[in-house]
Amino acid sequence: xxxxxxxxxxxxxxxxxxxxxxxxxxxxDGTLLASAQREHTTSSPRPGWxxxxxxDIWWADxxxxxxxxxxxxxxxxxxxGVGVSGIGPCLLPADAAGAPVRPAILYGVDxxxxxxxxxxxxxxxxxxxxxxxxxxLTSQAVGPKFAWLREREPAAWARTRRWFMASxxxxxxxxGAYVLDHHxxxxxxxxxxxxxxxxxxxxxxxxxxxxxxxxxxxxxxTVGEVTPEAEAATGIPAGTPVVAGTVDxxxxxxxxxxxxxxxxxxxxxxxxxxxxxxxxxxxxxxxWGTAGAFxxxxxxxxxxxxxxxxTGWLRELTGASYPELTEEADRLPxxxxxxxxxxxxxGERTPLFDPDARGLIHGLTLRHGRGHLYRAxxxxxxxxxxxxxxxxxxxxxxxxxxxxxxxGARGLWTRIVSDVTGRPQQVxxxxxxxAHGDALFAALGTGLVSAADLGGWNPVASVVEPDPATGEVYxxxxxxxxxxxxxxxxxxxxxxxxxxxxx
Length: 503
Known about the structure:
Blueprint: E1 10-16, E2 20-26, E3 32-39, E4 51-52, H1 54-70, E5 79-86, E6 92-94, E7 104-105, H2 114-124, H3 126-133, H4 143-152, H5 154-159, E8 162-164, H6 166-175, E9 179-181, H7 182-186, E10 192-193, E11 198-199, H8 201-207, E12 215-217, E13 222-225, H9 228-234, E14 241-243, E15 246-247, H10 248-255, E16 263-268, E17 272-278, E18 288-291, E19 298-303, H11 308-318, H12 322-330, E20 340-342, E21 360-362, H13 370-395, E22 401-406, H14 412-421, E23 425-428, H15 434-445, E24 460-464, H16 468-502
Parallel strand pairs: 1-5, 5-15, 9-12, 16-22, 22-23
Antiparallel strand pairs: 1-2, 2-3, 4-7, 6-8, 10-11, 13-14, 16-17, 17-19, 18-19, 20-21, 23-24
Helix pairs in contact: 1-6, 2-3, 2-4, 10-15, 11-13, 12-13, 13-14
C-alpha cells in the first residue's frame, strides 16, 4: 500500500460504544501496533431511557485511551492523524460554547419520544418523511428527541444552541470545530435530505428553532487540528490533524471493506447492526436509508435492539462464563432441543419498529439448562439477521457479500448465523471494530492512504461456510420464529404497558 517515498506517521482511532470505548494505533497499511479498551456504564434513569454523560464518558474515555496508546508510540515515530467515531444517532444538547446542558440521549435503544414520533408523523406525513429523508420516524430518529427536549425539559432547551453526537462532540473538544458528517446527519430524521446532501431548513427551524446547525462534512475530511488545550487534556500533540469521523457502525464497515454495492456488514456486539451498501438511495418504512461514508454512496441499514445484550444477561443470570456457556451450547443440536426465543428484550428496531415488543422463551421444560438458553439466544439473533436480510431484498437492497465484525464475529455464533441464513460470512484480519475504521479515515484525510489503497487495509482472513444439513433444521424453526411475534404481540404490549406504569 505504501512506499518508502510515501508520507509516514501513525494513526490514532478512538470509538465510543454503548458499554465500552476502544482505541487503536495503526500504521498506514492497516497494521495494528496497539489497542486499548475502557469500560463504562449507560444510565437508564427510567424505563426506555438510555443516556451517557458526555464529559464523564465520551471525553473521559478519549483522554484515558489516548494517553494509554500514546505511551506505546514507538521511539522515533510520530502521530500523523486522529479519527473518532461513536454510537449514533444521539442528541447531546449544548450551549453556545459547546458545553453540554444535559446528558446525551442515545440512539434507537432510547424510546422516550414515542408521542413526539406520532405527532411529527401526523404533521409532516409518514410517507413524505420516508420520501424526503429515506427512513421512517422511529426511536432512532433525532427530530422527535428534539421535540421531547423542548416539551419535557424547557429549562435545558432554553440553554441549547448547538447539538452533538459522540463523534462530533469529541471532534469539537479536540479542535473547536462545530461539524457533523453527512452520514450522521442522514440518520437525524427528519432533518436531513440525503439526495440533496443538506439540512431541510424549514423542518429544522420548526423542530429546533433558533439552533445553530453544524457544518456538514464527510467522515474522512480533516476538520481541524488538536488545540493546545486539548493536548494538555489528552496528550495528543497540538497541531495533529483530526478528521470528522462518523457513527461507529459505518466506521467499522469501512474498516472491514464494506464499501461497494452488494456488500453487507454484520456487526456482532451489544446490539446486532447490518449495513448494506446500495447503488441508489432506497427508502422503506421497515429499514433506515442513509448516506454512505463517502460522497456519492448510499446504504440500507438495519439494527436489532439486542444481541450480545441478551447473552450478557444470561451470563449474569447464571454466573457462568462465556466460554462455559459457549461450550455447553455447542454440544447441543440445532434448535436447542425444542427451545425457541424472541430476542426482543429491549423492544425491537428493524424491521418491526416496536419498542413494546418483548422477549419470549418458548418451549421451556424442566430438562432445559443454561446451555439451552444460551444456544437459543444465539439462534434468535441469527433468525433476526435473516429477517432483516430478507427485508433488505424486499426493499430493493442487494445483500450479497456478508462480512462479520465485532466481538462475537468468530466461533459458534457466526456458524449459527451462516447456517440459519444459508450464506457464507467473510471475517477480516482485524475485527476490533470501529476504532480501526477511525484510523483509516484519519489515514485518508491526511493523505497517508489513497482511495485506491483501501483493499489492502484489512484483508479477509477466513470464511464461515453454511452447513446445508443444519440449515434444513433451521428452516422449520425460522418459520416458527416468524409466527411467534404476531401471535404474542398483543400480550407483549399489555405487559409492556404494565411495566411502564409500574416504573
